[in-house]
Amino acid sequence: MAEWVGRERRARRCYGFDEIALVPGRVTINPEEVDIFWEFGGRHFSVPILAAAMDGVVDVNFAVEMSRLGGIAVLNLDGVQTRYENPDTVLREIAEAPAEEVTNLIQKIYTAQIKEKLVARRVEEIKEQGGYAAVSCIPQNAARFAPLAEEAGVDCFVVQSTVTTARHISSKYEPLDLFKFCRQRKVPVIIGNCVTYEVTLELLETGCSGLLIGVGPGAACTTRGVLGIGVPQVTATIDAAQARDFFYKKTGKYIPIITDGGMRKGGDVCKAFACGADAVMIGSAFARAKEAPGRGFHWGMATSHSNLPRGTRIRVGISGSLEQILFGPAEVDDGSQNLIGALATSMGTLGVRNIKEMHFVEIIIAPSIQTEGKIFQAVQKVGMGK
After folding, report:
1. β-sheet bridge partners, residue 50
2. pTM score > 0.90 for this model?
3. DSSP string, 308-364
4. What CATH superfamily is the domain 19-385?
5. What is the pLDDT of residues 206-233, one digit of tens each?
6. Facing residues of 20 across strands?
7. 376 vs 170, 331, 332, 368, 386, CA distance in Å?
8. In whole angstroms, what separates CA 21 from the centre of its chain?
9. CB 48 within 8 A of CB 38
10. DSSP structural state of residue 385
């Protein structure tokens, strides 16, 4: 599998979404008759998509609307929602800041202390409106925030960092014991992020209820440029899915994996499921929703680092409502709206009835899939040429 990249050094080829295509099946199915649901934490969700825990994407109102539509939106407990009584004022300031000043502004805004009372309040606000309350924080804050969120009625807790392993070494602080943390929780725990078979397998042993797969593919994330690390999402998802399946055969426990980041349009979402994902997590596509708090902007979760920011504010614009982005009708031609319709149509064309069957469709390496016959779209910057 590996190629020589220099004397005594080999590297294997890895693939991203733009380099593969899915092969139509021998039969086709009416898209209205396929099942796209997924099960998580003993609950049935009609939309197998999570909104990423980014301040420019998810606030209380967005989480409630995402719940109403059948999905999950994750609220960031390390961000402005828990640092400020009125986060909307701060979000407006970030959106209106000049490009040359915004990184310093965000660094300043995120130096405000987190108010523990706001952890519970945000969860309560989601629950009061009938929403599914999922929240996220970094490992350093997990042991402190999780009991507060559980007491407030949280439904799911996410422990998330740029790269997560089951074994973290530090002489400066006591690392979070993921095994102990998962045992103590009263609600499902999702852990992220990872990209390799071995780490996925070790994290599955912690007792978590789900894993996030992906390092650095997000539209606002600059980790791959700043740190030089990451694995393209096709390879990362396939490797993680193999670990999930091996773990299931060994233990009888099926723990879903969630491809996190790198998906700009419906076709990318479909490819993620074909690679083995049980659900996907999306940021920038949802940042374009009218309901998103970023007002057409969003920024990576690591943007605010005081010494080494690993994200940038990007402008994605506002294309329509969250319902349009999920279910249509699409008013744009680039595949960024009606993601569920795209998934159902793709499954029907591939001849699969559900997400599990999607894992076995034929994948081909096809670097020309984005450009073949698309010269007019590319020149006119429409459709696949955008």
Report:
1. 72, 281
2. yes
3. S--B--EE----B-HHHHHH----SSSS-S-HHHHHHHHHHHHT-SBHHHHTTS-EE
4. Aldolase class I (3.20.20.70)
5. 999 999 999 978 766 767 777 888 899 9
6. 365
7. 55, 20, 17, 15, 11
8. 21
9. yes
10. G
